[in-house]
Specification:
3 domains, Endonuclease/exonuclease/phosphatase domain-containing protein, two-stranded antiparallel ribbon, flat, 8 helices, mainly alpha, 55% helix, 5% strand
Amino acid sequence: LESHITDHLPLLLGVNLTNISRKPSRTLLKTDRLAIQNEINTTDFSMILSINNANLALYQFISILQNIISKFSYEVKVPRKNRNIKPWITPGLLRCIRNRDKLHKKSKNSPGNIILKLTYSRYRNFCNNLLRRLKRDYEKNELIKAKNNPKATWNAIKTITNSKKVTSTPYELLKVASNFKTSLNQINKFFADIGRNLASEITYCQDNTFAPFLSD
């Protein structure tokens, strides 16, 4: 870009970042700890003691442990009913929600059953109160964990209140002229001259009312 106030070329960069939504994991990595312990107990580590290079010995030791862990680790598919997208929803709470929905379906199919309707109403109220309490406790703990970090505190507040703003991209600035280079030069000139333009609009006061108080 053309610039008369700097000794380097200013740049304007726009990056379009899409919001990444958190999706529940479909797989869960499980590890057989007992098998790993037995494998470590039967593994011969004497070869590591014969290595003179400490860094190489450490690398070899870590490599052996990683291979053992990988050998006895496997992925398990998480059923859809057990996936949760909220960090404060526990497996027990998922079961509670499923039972509530089942009772609702039964009550809907039998509208004349007063006992079933009363059972569903009480269980629904219990489940909803439990949901609200766990959510409130989780949000409180998040704020407590971030109390000494202002940035983390504001991030927690925005997450809790669901008020994260989506910032717009500066692509419109690249369309102020017929081509990108001319657009960037105009933008650069605007920001380079903004201080001078503001200074030129300042009017100096000629009032000498306070002059006697300023004299020695």
